[in-house]
Design a protein that fits this description.
Low-confidence stretches of chain A: none
Strand order of the largest sheet of chain B: 2-1-3-4
Number of helices of chain A: 20
Order of helices and strands of chain B: HHHHEHHEEEH
Number of strands of chain A: 19
Shape of chain B: elongated
Low-confidence stretches of chain B: 1-21
Helix content of chain B: 40-55%
Mean pLDDT of chain A: 94
Number of domains of chain B: 2
Structural class of chain B: alpha+beta
Largest interface: A-B, 42 and 31 residues
Strand content of chain A: 5-15%
Distance between the termini of chain A: 53 Å
CATH class of the largest domain in chain B: Alpha Beta
Mean pLDDT of chain B: 85
Number of helices of chain B: 7
Oligomer: heterodimer
Distance between the termini of chain B: 71 Å
Bound molecules: iron/sulfur cluster, FE2/S2 (inorganic) cluster
C-alpha cells in the first residue's frame, strides 16, 4: 500500500514527504541536514537531547525534529538565528556536565559531541555546572565505563535492551543522581552483561570504550625473550582501512599484514586457518550428532558474547551448543603445541595476540577452559580499533604500505573461513564441508544464498546428500533469544543453528571502527563489509575448509582426524552455568 | 583410553530442570506471582505490594520479580530508585519524615532536615546501622498551617524548630 504524501516547506524548499515520518527524516531526504545526538534510527527515537531543534511557523517555541512528525502545510525552519542559538544553549548545558578531556580521550575524532561542539562553534561554556563524579568501572576484561563522559542520551540503554535483549544498563536514581548505570552501580563484570560491545558502537562519546590491551602488547613486542605471534580475524581486514580514512568495505589484508610486521610481530598468521579447523570439527560434530541421535539442533559456539549469554540465561540449553572452541582459540592452541614443536620454540615463550573485531574475545581469552598444559591458548586480544591505534602510534603510514602476505607454514586459509566474519558465513562454510563429507564427492554447489543477507533471522532448508536439513542463522542477541525460546518450547524444526551476538555478525562487532549515527544512515555498513568478505571468498582458489592443505597436513601429522582424542583436548571446550548477578 | 577427554555430546545430556516459576523464599511472593500475569505492565503495581509487605524492596525480590516479568533487573532497579515511594532498605523502628513541601520549606524545613541528618549521621532515604531510625523527605503532608512539620511514625509535630526536634530525638534515645 502506498503511503500518502504530505506537502510541507523546509527552509523555503517545497518538500513532499511520506505521512508519518519525522521532520528530521523528511529534511534529510530533501538534502537538508539537521544535527542530532540522542537519535539512533529505529533504536533510540526518544527526543531527549533536543539538539535537533527546529522552528515551525505558527507554533511557539521549538520542535524536536527527530520525533515531530510531518504535517500537511507545515513550514519548517532549521537554520534561523534563533534555532542556531537555541541549539547552542542546549549543547552548552550538555557539555557543562561533561568531563571534557579530548586530548587524551580515545573517542577524540570519532566523538559526536566533539563534532557538534565544533560545528556549533562553541567557543566557551557558559553554564559550567557541578559535575557528577563517577568512579570509572574498569573491572571487566572487556569494557571500561567512564560516566563523567556520559551525556545521558540512552543510546546504549536502547541498544542493550532492544537490539541485544540483555538490559544490563538502564537509567537509575532520580534527580541530580540520575545516571545510566547498572543495578546498584555495579561493575559490568558483576551483572548480566555479555561483553558484546554493541553499546560502545552506539555511544556517541567516550563514556563507553574497550579495555585497552595495547600496553601489554607493546611490552611483549619490545621484549627480546618473547616470540610474539599475531593472528587476525576475518572481519578485521574488511574494516581496518576505515580507521585510516579508506572507504567502508575496502579489503586491506595485505596492508594489515605489512603493518603488523612493521610493528615487530615475529610472525603474522591468519585466524582464518583456525576457522578452517573450526569447520572441520564442527561439521564432524554435527554429522555425529545427526548419525548418533545426539542433541539437536546444534548451535555454533564461535561468538563468546553469545556463549556468555546462553550460560547466564538458558543454561538448560547448553547441551545444544557445539563443544568447538572459537577459531582464534583453536589456532592459539595449535600454535603453542604443533607449531612450537615444529619450530623448536618453547611454548611458554610464545605470546599469541589475537586481532579481533570483538571485545567479548577479551573475556573469552581468560576463561579457565581456554588453557592447555597451564598455558593460555591466546595471551592478549586487541580490537581492530586498538590495532589502528598501534599503527598510528608507531608512525606507520598505513595507506602507503606495500601489501605483504601471511607467514608460512600456518598462513593458508580458504574462502570458507573468510566468510566466518558475517552472519550466515559459519553456516555456509560448515555446509560446504558437511555435504562433501557425507557424499564423499567434491560438490560444485558452494554458495548457499539463503543464509546470506542482513536479516536478523534467516531460515533455510538445504539438501545435503539427499537429506533435507533445516538451518537457521541468527544475529543480535534479541534474535538469538527468539530461537532459544523456540528450542525450549519444542517448536524448533531445524537441526543446525548459527548464532552471532552482534547484529550482522563479527563485521559489526564491538571492536570494529565506530560509525556515527549519520554515517549509518548514509551507508549500509554491514553490507559493504560483508560484500568485502564474500568477494575474498569468490576470489579464493580454495573455498572449502577440508581442502585447505595446512589443515590436511596438521590432521595427518598431529591431530589425526576431526573429533580425535587430541582434537578434543586442544580444540574443544566446556561451558558452565553462570550467575547473572554477583551479589 | 581413546575416548578420555572427549566431550560426549551424542548422549542426550540431562538438561537441568527448566527454571522453576518461583524460587521464592516465602509465601507472600508465591501468592503475588500467582495473582499477577507475568507482563511488564504489572511492574509498578507489584512493586507497590512488595514495598507495603516488606517495608522496602529487597534486592533478591527485585531479582525474582525481574525473572518473573522478564524485565531486565536494571530496569526494575531503575524504577525502584526513581520513585521515592520505593525504598531499598527497611525503614527504621522510628521513621522520621521532614516535610519539604513549599510552605514548610519557606518556613525553614531544610534546617530541620539538616539537623536530623547531622544527629543521626545518615542521609535522606537511609536507615541507621542499628535499624532504629530512618529519614525521609516528604512532600506536603497537608498540615501547612503548622509549617514546618515533621513526623515520627506518622505522628505529626508542627511549628517545628531545631529545639523541638532535639527534644523529640532525646526522648527517643532513652526509649528502646
Ligand atoms: S567524549 Fe568527546 S567531547 Fe568528551 S572528552 Fe571525549 S572526545 Fe572530548
Ligand atoms: S556489552 Fe552488550 S550486553 Fe554489555 S552492556 Fe553493552 S550492549 Fe549490553
Ligand atoms: S554511555 Fe554513551 S550511549 Fe550511554 S547514555 Fe551515556 S553517552 Fe549515551
Ligand atoms: S532530541 Fe532529537 S536528536 Fe536528541
Ligand atoms: S508544605 Fe509541609 S505540610 Fe504542606
Amino acid at each position: 500500500m502506498e503511503k500518502s504524501l504530505v506537502n510541507l516547506t523546509i527552509d523555503g524548499k517545497a518538500v513532499q514527504a511520506e505521512q508519518g515520518i519525522s521532520i528530521l527524516e523528511a529534511a534529510r531526504k530533501a538534502g537538508i541536514d539537521i544535527p542530532t545526538l540522542c537519535f539512533l534510527k529505529d533504536i533510540n527515537e526518544v527526543g531527549d537531547c533536543r539538539v535537533c531543534l527546529v522552528q515551525i511557523e505558527g507554533r511557539r517555541g521549538f520542535a524536536t525534529s527527530c520525533i515531530q512528525k510531518v504535517e500537511e502545510g507545515m513550514v519548517v525552519h532549521t537554520n534561523t538565528e534563533e534555532v542556531l542559538e537555541a541549539r547552542k544553549v542546549v549543547l552548552d548545558l550538555i557539555i557543562s556536565n561533561h568531563k571534557v578531556d579530548c586530548l587524551t580521550c580515545v573517542r577524540s575524532g570519532s566523538c559526536e559531541l566533539q563534532t557538534l561542539a565544533k560545528q556549533f562553534n562553541m567557543t566557551d561554556i557558559e553554564f559550567a555546572g557541578v559535575r557528577n563524579e563517577h568512579e570509572i568501572d574498569d573491572l571487566s576484561p572487556s569494557i571500561v565505563r567512564d560516566f563523567s563522559k556520559c551525556i545521558l542520551c540512552r543510546r546504549c540503554v536502547a541498544t542493550c535492551k532492544k537490539v541485544q535483549g540483555v538490559g544490563a544498563i538502564d537509567t537509575i536514581n532520580r534527580g541530580f543522581e540520575s545516571c545510566v548505570s547498572t543495578v546498584e552501580n555495579k561493575s559490568l563484570n558483576d551483572v548480566n552483561c555479555t561483553f558484546c560491545g554493541q553499546c560502545i558502537q552506539n555511544c556517541p562519546t567516550g563514556a563507553l570504550r574497550e579495555k585497552d590491551s595495547t600496553g601489554e602488547v607493546w611490552r611483549k613486542l619490545r621484549d627480546p625473550e618473547t616470540y610474539v605471534i599475531a593472528q587476525t580475524a576475518p572481519a578485521v581486514r574488511a574494516a581496518l582501512g576505515e580507521e585510516f580514512g579508506m572507504e567502508v568495505g575496502t579489503n586491506v589484508t595485505g596492508k594489515m599484514v605489512a603493518g603488523l610486521k612493521k610493528l615487530g610481530f615475529d610472525k603474522v598468521f591468519d585466524t582464518n586457518t583456525g576457522a578452517d579447523f573450526t569447520i572441520m570439527e564442527e561439521a564432524n560434530e554435527f554429522i555425529e550428532r545427526v548419525q548418533e541421535n545426539g542433541v539437536l539442533p546444534m548451535i555454533t559456539s564461535c561468538s563468546p558474547g553469545w556463549v556468555k549469554y546462553i550460560e547466564m540465561n538458558y543454561p538448560e540449553l547448553l547441551p545444544h551448543v557445539s563443544s568447538c572452541k572459537s577459531p582464534h582459540e583453536m589456532f592459539g592452541a595449535l600454535l603453542k603445541t604443533y607449531y612450537a614443536k615444529k619450530e623448536g620454540l618453547d611454548p611458554s615463550k610464545i605470546f599469541v595476540v589475537s586481532v579481533m573485531p570483538c571485545i567479548a574475545k577479551k573475556f573469552e581469552r581468560q576463561r579457565t577452559e581456554m588453557k592447555n598444559d597451564g598455558l593460555f591458548d591466546v595471551d592478549s586480544v586487541i580490537t581492530t580499533r586498538e590495532l589502528a591505534r598501534m599503527i598510528k602510534q608507531a608512525n606507520i603510514n598505513f595507506i602507503s604500505l606495500e601489501d605483504s602476505e601471511f607467514d608460512n607454514p600456518m598462513g593458508e586459509a580458504t574462502g570458507a573461513a573468510a566468510i566466518f566474519g558475517t552472519t550466515g558465513g559459519v553456516m555456509e562454510a560448515a555446509l560446504r564441508t558437511a555435504q562433501d563429507t557425507l557424499t564423499g564427492e567434491d560438490l560444485k554447489k558452494i554458495n548457499f544464498e539463503a543464509v546470506r543477507g542482513g536479516e536478523g533471522i534467516k531460515r533455510a532448508a538445504v539438501n545435503i546428500a539427499g537429506k533435507e536439513i533445516k538451518v537457521v542463522a541468527a544475529s543480535g542477541l534479541a534474535n538469538a533469544q527468539k530461537i532459544l525460546e523456540e528450542i525450549k518450547s519444542g517448536t524448533a524444526d531445524y537441526q543446525f543453528v548459527e548464532i552471532m551476538a552482534c547484529p550482522g555478525g563479527c563485521i559489526m562487532g564491538g571492536g570494529q571502527p565506530i560509525k556515527t549515527s549519520k554515517e549509518r544512515l548514509d551507508k549500509d555498513i554491514r553490507k559493504l563489509r560483508a560484500d568485502c568478505l564474500y568477494s575474498i571468498d569468490e576470489k579464493s582458489t580454495i573455498r572449502k575448509s577440508h581442502e585447505n592443505p595446512v589443515v590436511k597436513k596438521i590432521y595427518e601429522e598431529f591431530l589425526e582426524k576431526p573429533g580425535s582424542y587430541r582434537a578434543h583436548k586442544l580444540l574443544h571446550t566446556k561451558y558452565q552455568e553462570r550467575e547473572k548477578y554477583n551479589f | 583410553m581413546e575416548n578420555e577427554g572427549k566431550v560426549d555430546f551424542t548422549k542426550q545430556v540431562d538438561a537441568k530442570e527448566p527454571e522453576k516459576k518461583c524460587k521464592c523464599k516465602d509465601k507472600f511472593l508465591e501468592e503475588l506471582f500467582k495473582t499477577y500475569q507475568p507482563i511488564k505492565d504489572n511492574l509498578i503495581q507489584m512493586l507497590n505490594e512488595i514495598q507495603d509487605h516488606y517495608g522496602y524492596v529487597p534486592m533478591d525480590v527485585q531479582k525474582e520479580l525481574s525473572e518473573f516479568l522478564k524485565v531486565p533487573m536494571a530496569e526494575v532497579y531503575g524504577v525502584v530508585t526513581f520513585y521515592s515511594r520505593f525504598t531499598l532498605k527497611p525503614k527504621g523502628k522510628y521513621s522520621i519524615s521532614v516535610c519539604l513541601g513549599t510552605a514548610c520549606y519557606v518556613k525553614g524545613a531544610q534546617k530541620i532536615m539538616d539537623r536530623l541528618q547531622e544527629r543521626l549521621k545518615i542521609g535522606e532515604g537511609e536507615t541507621t546501622e542499628d535499624g532504629k531510625y530512618s529519614i525521609e523527605a516528604q512532600r506536603c503532608v497537608g498540615a501547612c498551617g503548622l509549617a514546618p512539620v515533621f513526623t515520627v511514625n506518622g505522628k505529626v509535630y508542627g511549628k517545628a524548630t531545631v529545639k523541638l526536634l532535639d527534644s523529640v530525638l532525646d526522648e527517643l534515645e532513652t526509649s528502646n
